[in-house]
Design brief:
6 domains, 5-stranded antiparallel beta sheet, alpha+beta, 984 residues, 33 strands
Length: 984
């Protein structure tokens, strides 16, 4: 074989072996271009085994395949470089990081043939990592150097922490670092410094050292273990959810936390973050631990220097305070020899105010301490000091000192000896104070106390001094005089101890109770006892006392009224209570009598005022109701009205009559309503009321009527008595909502002189009685006292007017009688009505005319009425009755009509109250002066006028009260015109 062939064969065999066994990746490619020569892709023609070993792609999966398919990347990796080499034939070499394999490669590219290129890729990942680690370590060394310089330089904790964070980020190249202090109470790690490649706020960092959700990261773990902790950070990790915003914002991949310590132990943490998952190798951790150690050292140094500075300032302040204190003490602070004559080593400036000499006279040796002590007091002072020094105890003394100005002073001294390690006294130290003024004040105080004791004992007020258990420790002479106790008994009460104020004051309850004052059941109701206990349990300093005590005076029980004050005192560190009381029994009795008389006067005035008010109200109502009733009755006479309309008018007429009854009640309780008295049998009156009574009280109440065995004759208004029975029955019904018994008993009773105490409103003689009794709820005394007051009611709003019993009393008094009432709660109430009897036989009765009946007549009537509605109603009614009616709205207008038509006017029908300055009575007097035979009818809705004028002119004129019916009006007019006129 030819040697060249052999050589080539051997070379090819060697290259093949090299190709098969080399660690570099060798790949032959063919460039793929379009029709215009633009590179689109490249095809893998051949690979060595290293390609499969490194990439994991088998030969058959790669050879002959397009690179974009093999690497699943379009365009395939590094197409531009490979195309340049294949097309130019010039070799190139470059370094790259291939992310899919996470490796660094050195790639050499050459073109073995046109349109082809071969790549030799060398894995340089390890070299790159070492280079990166070296750069990291260099940066860490730079950061450590900066921290070391900072540790030496800074004196402020905040400045230190900021410098450490900045060095780790800007020197060491980490993306984020923060330092926090652990709060041992809340367990929160409070950020004090934070630095990042982006701005970061300390408020963004929330970490706790315990096991709450904010305590699951590396920082809390490092604090709990008190050693460094390295952690990979995954944004999907639920334990890292509280810091997800920081992980995403800084692209954090790993973290290392280092505990920091100060002189007291665990101080806080330093946490460093990186964007690389394996950023914290062992060398880097060691350097960061050294940074943490240096930071801890600096914290200890700064804290130590701060404490030293604080101690120095505190010592300096204490020295200043001590100097200030000594210089401001109102006396002399001294240091002297142990034994007399006591050579002085130090005397404070304040000593001059006592000794009258500058301190230097003593410290320079001119005088000793003994030189200023009064000779009479010196032996006793020397004895006191020597005994105290020998016994190793402080000493106190009081003596006199001599001053150069002759104003000797009384002083108080307190001091003690200072001893060496062997127990031998070295010098005396103490203070001497001027107590001359205090001795004078004590003398004056004793004199003042004697004066106060005299005032206390002679004060015209009961004065008792009580201890914290409310027992009397001292009492004055007034208290003794009030209790009328003999001297021996009084001394026994005060010296026994444990006696309460009730026993001292001879309260019957306190004397009869074995346990003394405040222990019996009656004491629980005692206002004095209650007030004292309330003050004892409260923070008040004073309290008002008003009470009544049943006392034993000269062996006899008597009730007295007391009022005053009790005050809390502090005497010699003990709680005391000073009780001061006045005997106001006589005054209260006088005030009670005055109040009773004033109440009677007030009640009389109130009833009078309400009576006038009721009369005024009735006047206005009666004017309104007069017109309404006349018009209603006029309509009812119209036979052409439909039945439904007629029924409605009838109901309206009934409502108007009910309103008239209400005004009648107002007048009845004020005793202003005119009565139509007739002689009636009270039995018959009550029997006629029976049907209405059953409808009123209802079926759930049993009614029992008990008439008198004989007729009970009296002169009375039967309708008014019916109103009395109705009001009392309604009250009884309301008092028995669940049913009961209502008894109405008619009888007679004779009252004699000896019975007047039981009947304070009554008079002697024989009286008719009506007793109305129920078994209802009854009334307590406070309600019973107001029962007859107008408008007073205990019923719910809308259920009562408050006029029921007031009306009853008014009607009964109008009949010359009175009402008595008795009531017991839950038993019932009894009203007894007393009315005067008359001796007569039964009167004849005549049927009552219909209210719609018109009594015809003839003649001319002058109608004077200011209310247009009433005037029209009356005029229409009279015209239908056959009269000619002339109308006028006031007195002046009536005179004008009179001047024109006076000859034909037969009767004047006038309201008493008219506008325009002329009353109805003045008008008729003017007309009668011109025509004496003129007939006159006066009307008014105000019953006071009717009552007053009936007395004056009732014998001359006919008085017709409002409201009135058509029948009453026409019958009155017809009757008058059928009689001759009466001249005034």
């Amino acid at each position: 074989m030819h040697p060249d062939h052999i050589k080539r064969t051997c070379l090819a065999s060697g290259l093949h072996l090299l190709h098969e066994h080399m660690s570099e990746i060798v790949v032959l490619h063919e460039l793929i271009c379009d029709n215009h020569g633009k590179p689109l892709d490249y095809r893998i023609l051949d690979t060595n085994p290293a390609f499969t070993q490194v990439t994991g792609i088998r030969w058959e999966e790669a050879n002959g395949k397009l690179a974009s398919e093999v690497y699943q990347q379009s365009p395939p990796p590094y197409l531009d470089i490979y195309a340049r080499v294949a097309q130019s034939g010039l070799a190139e070499q470059f370094e790259t990081y291939y992310a899919p394999m996470q490796k660094h490669f050195l790639i050499s590219v050459f073109s073995p043939a046109p349109g082809q290129f071969a790549t030799v890729a060398t894995d340089i990942t390890l070299r790159k990592e070492k280079e990166l680690e070296a750069r990291r370590l260099n940066r860490l060394y730079a950061a450590l150097s900066t921290v070391n310089q900072t540790v030496v330089r800074v004196q402020n904790e905040n400045e230190l922490l900021d410098a450490v964070c900045q060095a780790i980020v800007y020197k060491a190249g980490f993306c984020l670092v923060w330092i926090g202090r652990l709060d041992p109470i809340s367990q929160r790690v409070i950020p004090l410094a934070a630095t990042g490649v982006q701005p970061v706020s300390k408020e963004d960092i929330l970490v706790y050292a315990d096991h709450r959700p904010e305590g699951m990261g590396p920082t809390a773990e490092a604090l709990r273990q008190q050693q460094p902790v390295v952690s990979h950070l995954n944004v999907a990790d639920p334990l890292l959810a509280p810091w997800k915003h920081l992980i995403q914002r800084f692209q954090l991949a790993s973290a290392a936390a280092f505990p920091l310590f100060d002189a007291n132990g665990l101080w806080g943490n330093m946490t460093v973050y990186s964007t690389e998952p394996d950023a914290f190798s062992q060398p880097e951790l060691a350097l960061l631990e050294e940074v943490a150690a240096d930071t801890s050292f600096a914290l200890k140094r700064i804290q130590a220097e701060k404490r030293q500075k604080q101690v120095a300032q505190l010592l300096e302040e204490r020295d200043r305070q001590l100097q200030t204190l000594i210089s401001n003490i109102p006396g002399g602070v001294y240091q002297c020899e142990v034994h007399a004559p006591w050579r002085v080593f130090f005397f404070s400036e304040g000593s001059e105010s006592i000794t009258g000499r500058p301190p230097s006279d003593f410290t320079d040796g001119k005088l000793t301490y003994a030189d200023m002590v009064h000779p009479e007091d010196l032996p006793e002072l020397n004895r006191i000091v020597e005994e105290a020094v020998a016994a190793h105890r402080p000493y106190e003394a009081k003596y006199r000192i001599l001053r150069p100005d002759g104003k000797n002073r009384h002083v108080y001294e307190k001091g003690q000896a200072s001893y060496d390690s062997s127990g031998s006294p070295v010098f005396l130290e103490g203070i001497v104070l001027d107590n001359t003024a205090q001795r004078e004040a004590e003398r004056l105080l004793r004199a003042s106390q004697r004066e106060l004791e005299a005032v206390y004992d002679q004060a015209p007020v009961i004065m008792l001094l009580l201890d914290e258990k409310l027992k009397v420790v001292r009492a004055n002479r007034t208290a003794r005089d009030l209790s009328a106790t003999t001297g021996k008994e009084w001394n026994t009460c005060l010296t026994d101890g444990g006696n309460g104020p009730g026993r001292i004051l001879q309260c019957v309850n306190a004397l009869t109770s074995p346990e003394g004052c405040g222990a019996s059941d009656a004491c629980m109701q005692c206002l004095l006892n209650q007030t004292l206990k309330e003050l004892l349990q409260s923070n008040q300093c004073c309290a008002r006392v008003e009470c009544k005590l049943e006392m034993k005076r000269m062996g006899k029980p008597t009730t007295i009224s007391l009022e005053g004050n009790v005050c809390r005192l502090q005497i010699n560190g003990h709680k005391r209570y000073l009780l001061c009381l006045n005997d106001v029994t006589a005054r209260i009795q006088a005030e009670t009598e005055r109040d009773r008389l004033q109440q009677q006067l007030f009640q009389a005035q109130k009833m009078e005022a309400i009576g006038h008010l009721a009369g005024g109200i009735a006047h206005d109502f009666n004017n309104i109701l007069a017109g309404m009733i006349l018009h209603y009755q006029e309509l009812l006479e119209d036979g052409s009205l439909p039945a439904t309309v007629r029924q409605s008018i009838t109901e309206l007429n009934h409502l108007a009559e009910r309103a008239a009854n209400l005004t009648r009640q107002l007048l009845q309780f004020s005793r202003q309503s005119p009565m139509e008295k007739k002689v009636i049998d009270l039995n018959v009156c009550v029997f006629d009321f029976q049907k209405l009574l059953h409808r009123t009280v209802g079926e759930h109440i049993q009614v029992r009527l008990s008439p008198a065995p004989e007729p009970v004759w009296l002169e009375a208004d039967a309708s008014m008595l019916g109103q009395v029975l109705l009001n009392l029955s309604v009250n009884a019904r309301d008092a028995m909502p669940k049913g009961g018994l209502l008894r109405i008993t008619v009888g007679t009773k004779e009252i004699q002189e000896q019975d007047l105490n039981e009947h304070p409103q009554g008079k002697t003689g024989k009286w008719a009685t009506i007793e109305v009794a129920d078994t209802g709820c009854g009334m307590p005394p406070e309600i019973l006292a107001q029962a007859f007051e107008p408008f007073f009611t205990t019923k719910p709003t809308g259920k009562g007017t408050g006029l029921g019993l007031a009306t009853v009393e008014g009607i009964v008094k109008q009949h010359g009688g009175w009402v008595e009432v008795s009531s017991k709660v839950n038993i019932g109430t009894t009203f007894t009505i007393y009315l005067p009897l008359v001796a007569t036989s039964a009167p004849s009765s005549s049927p009552q005319p219909s209210p719609l009946q018109i009594h015809a007549g003839s003649g001319t009537i002058l109608l004077v009425e200011d209310d247009p509605t009433v005037r029209r109603g009356v005029a229409n009614c009279l015209r239908r009755a056959g009269y000619q009616v002339l109308e006028a709205g006031q007195g002046i207008e009536a005179l004008q009509v009179w001047q024109l038509r006076h000859q034909e006017i037969d009767l004047v029908f006038s309201d008493m109250v008219l506008p325009g300055g002329m009353t109805g009575l003045e008008l008729v007097h003017t007309l009668l002066a011109q025509k004496p035979n003129l007939h006159v009818v006066l009307s008014s809705g105000y019953s006071v006028e009717l009552a007053d004028w009936e007395k004056q002119v009732g014998h001359m004129f006919t008085l017709l009260p409002k409201p009135y019916t058509i029948s009453k009006l026409t019958s009155t007019i017809a009757e008058i015109l059928g009689k001759p006129a009466i001249s005034p």
